[in-house]
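User: My collaborator sent over this chain with a note saying "see what the structure looks like." That's all I know about it. Can you take a look?
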Amino acid sequence: MALRINDVVPDFTADTDQGEISFHDWIGDSWAILFSHPKDFTPVCTTEFSAVAQLADEWAARGTKVIGVSVDGVDEHKKWKEDIARYGNAPAGFPIIADAGLKVSKLFDMLPAEAYLPDGRTPADSATVRSVFIIGPDKQLKLSMTYPMTVGRNFAEILRALDGLQMSSKGVATPANWVPGEDVIIPPTVSNEDATAKFGEFETIFPYLRKTKAPE
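Assistant: Without extra context I'll predict from the sequence alone. Here is the result:
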């Protein structure tokens, strides 16, 4: 079954390069980002893991834990992290799940139930394990996106999307291309009277499109 927005994400136990985790317990009361990769020691994925490592302070500032999953084992992850740190000039302090058995990839619907890893496999055998899942403290899926192997993910956009999700948890919505500091949208379900009581002044562009200052 496909994992949909607002579904509770699967819980699981798995080995990582930092020891065994129970996923829901690992998330705790934080936001979390799970980002997946089809194989260690691949070029695009190395640049992506490095980008995540460089943003360590940004994730921490947003109360967000990040964790990778790659369809290889713990030993490969530990060796790969040396390349990741060298490329990005930043230590990869986040854990990477060892998913050689494909359990996590199948739980998150990145691979079909019948998928397996053939001998002498290449990244193409697990090409669809190229997803990002942003998960709230309630363990619900808030956003997901999947990329092909040839297109590196834009983690600045993932960070912006995380900001938008955290802002929207305050009862507002964000317009196209929104970044922190800009005005937000009052949901149509909120009456003008309630909007005034909750947000103070607001701008009515159309009856269904009203903007106000972002709540603190």
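A starting point for your reply to your collaborator: The beta strands are 13-16, 19-22, 31-37, 64-70, 96-98, 131-135, 141-146, 184-186, 203-206, 209-212.
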